Amino acid sequence: MTSSVTVGMEEEEDPSTKPLGRLSVFYYGVGHMLNDITASCWFTYLLLFLTQIGLSPRDAAIVMLSGQVADGFATIFIGELIDRFGHFKIWHAAGSLLVAISFSSVFGGCFPCSLLHSNSSTVETLSYCMFAAIFNVGWAATQVSHMAMVNCITLNSTSRVALTSSRNAFSMVANLGLYAIALVVFGVSKAVTKENTETQYRWIAYSSITVGCCFVVIFLMGTKEPRMKINLRETSRSRIPWSYWFRKILYYQVAMVYLLTRLVLNVSQAYLAFFVIDDLQMAQSAKALIPAIIYICSFVVSVMLQEIPWNGKRLKAYYCAGGIIWIFCGISILLLPRSINSYMYAISVFIGIANALMLVTAISMQSVLIGSELGGCAFVCGSLSFLDKMSCGLALYVLQSHQGTSPKVDVNIKEYFYFSVTRYGLGLVPAVCSLVGVVVTYFMELDSTILKPLCQPLLLE
After folding, report:
1. Is residue 253 part of a domain?
2. Where are the transmembrane segments (predicted)?
3. Is the CB of residue 446 less than 8 Å from the CB of residue 316?
4. Measuring CA to CA, how many Å separate 249 from each of 244, 372, 374, 445?
5. Does 51 map to a domain?
């Protein structure tokens, strides 16, 4: 009698741990494309756009920081609400709607300036700060709900990494889509005045929103709402208090690795266009071609990572491999003179590989940390995102505040290069963050074993 009951329980537990189908992975993966394509525009072009329309580098950095701070605090608040009330798809849809409405205003010119008939730089800065904050609140709602959903869709560690890899692969598609849109817009129209510049970026924003919203609809129609009930044997499922995570060493280790990984990706992305044009003095096409190479390589690697069976040791190994590659890339960027700037194309291949390895494994470490403790999955994702947003915002503010003050360093008699803010932002900062991330990961103890079975299927029928 006992044996038959045990067999029956094992059969009921199988759906929660068996691998997901490719269609389920696809539907989930496209759900973050609106966030990804707008974030790519945010980090790649915001500082460039704001300085082109007349804001000082410091004011442009303030706009960026205001958005990051709003995003950071929103992730904590929204994560707590999701843990309390659930409804991932509702939060995702509401956040996507707010992103779609507000993003065009970030690149759409200063509406309060027109309303008040003012050319004040203070009013202009405050206007962009306001829309940047609104956009980032919506972005946070979509991000936290989408990231936390991974842990409630399946308990299979390999499927969780597959979902993360799919999300990262479509993130690369979104980034490539943005650069394709930008290439067309920049090729069709020329920016000779402030109004022309605002029109260019407004069209980029509208096109990005349209493409991203199409994929949001596919995600909402194809993905089922996850259940958040788990059999804890002792009690029914309840929300896990924050203090539970703060007592775990692994929480701080995963938080540090995720924070450093986001610093690597976001800071390098923000200064890539500046570096290839200002420091290396490459052709204008390079500011679209080199990012495209990076994202194509990241896409290929992300797709390949979906086919690998995962465990804690393998996550650590692949993250360390990506970190070591980035260290060498950072050193190469620091020492790369203008005379051989074509080598940047080769470096971009390795940057793309390293980005995919680090991001996929860093996000997957969150799933290992959460395990089957689904009652706090949104808080974990939200709190780690809070650290990510605040650190990136502060780092970019500090770097941008010193833009244009770097000395010229003579390397040899005929050729010289700048040890500029852009060179530090693209080379030194990612290399140092990667080194620290590798060290933290090496001493991390990951356990991908799922001990607690679910009492019902994770997806609503």
Report:
1. yes
2. 25-48, 60-78, 90-111, 169-191, 203-223, 249-276, 288-305, 317-337, 343-365, 424-444
3. yes
4. 11, 17, 18, 9
5. yes
- Nearest Cα neighbor of 362 from 249, 246, 440, 457 is 440
CB burial readout 282-292, b (16+ within 10 A) else e: beeebbbbbbb
In the 8-state DSSP scheme, what is residue 375?
G
Furthest-apart CA atoms within the chain: distance in Å: 88
Q: How far apart (Å, rounded) are the C-alpha atoms in residues 312 and 52?
A: 46
Phi, psi of 301 (to 5 degrees): -65, -40
Q: The domain spanning residue 218 has which CATH number?
A: 1.20.1250.20
Q: What is the pTM of this model?
A: 0.73
Nearest Cα residue to 438 out of 330, 295, 346: 330
Does 150 reside within a domain?
A: yes
Give per-residue pLDDT as tens, 13-29: 445 566 677 788 888 98
pLDDT per residue as tens digits for the range 229-269: 444 333 334 567 777 888 888 899 999 999 999 999 988 88
Phi-psi region of 96 (alpha: psi -120 to 50; beta: other; left: phi over 0): alpha
Give the model confidence (pLDDT) of 71-87 as tens digits. Answer: 888 888 888 888 777 78
